[in-house]
Hints:
Spore Coat Polysaccharide Biosynthesis Protein SpsA, Chain A
Amino acid sequence: MKDKNRISVVIPTYNEEANIKETLISVKNQRCSVPYEIIVVDGRSSDETVSIAKNYAKTYISPKKGKANQLNYIVPETSGDLLVFLDADTIIEPNFLQKIYKIFQRHKNLFACSARVKYYNGKSISFNLGSQKFTITMYFFLNWTMHIYYFCKSLLGFPELIGCNIIVRRDTFFKVRGFRQLPSNLIGIDKVFSDSLIHLIKKINRGKIKTLNFVYVFTSGRTLNARRSLKRLGDYRSKKEIFYNLATSKI
């Protein structure tokens, strides 16, 4: 029988030797009053990712490569009431898990959330204003644009979780049957997962998902690419039926 943890932090990896150590240290050093576990699920990396990860976390090798495949494979091996999915290049503040846990304790109707994302290149400036800590990176204007984008989507009734950090209740994850592995020519498993949750919420007339305003994570700006972003938006419009069918299947 697995030890009972309140939170399971799950990190999918594939050739992430340059990033995984810093991410795992940020998770390992959490100031959290409830028990949590750290799990890495690797997609058969050809570099030293697995060797590094084993020093900080329980590490598994997924039989199938692909973020959705890896996460769906490993979730049954976890024990947390809350599932925290982080990308391998995403850094969390020392009190991140404690804040997240308290939010879900206070808001019983919250099914899933994402923290605000701050893109960074390893350098930042931080300051306190009242009880809040603010951190500025070289991507300051982009970070605020992204925040406004997700805030407006939530306001208009189309909330979308952010792929580098997704937090979901365990029972909710299983109700939507996990993540959907997209065809190789499409990107956006976070969008499909968000739509799966919205479909569930409408079906049972209960629950909500949201992005958080005053909790954030740092994630690498290495994947920022205008062409990739435009392709993703174009795919959503031109192939919306495929995305819809993936999101609503099995629910």
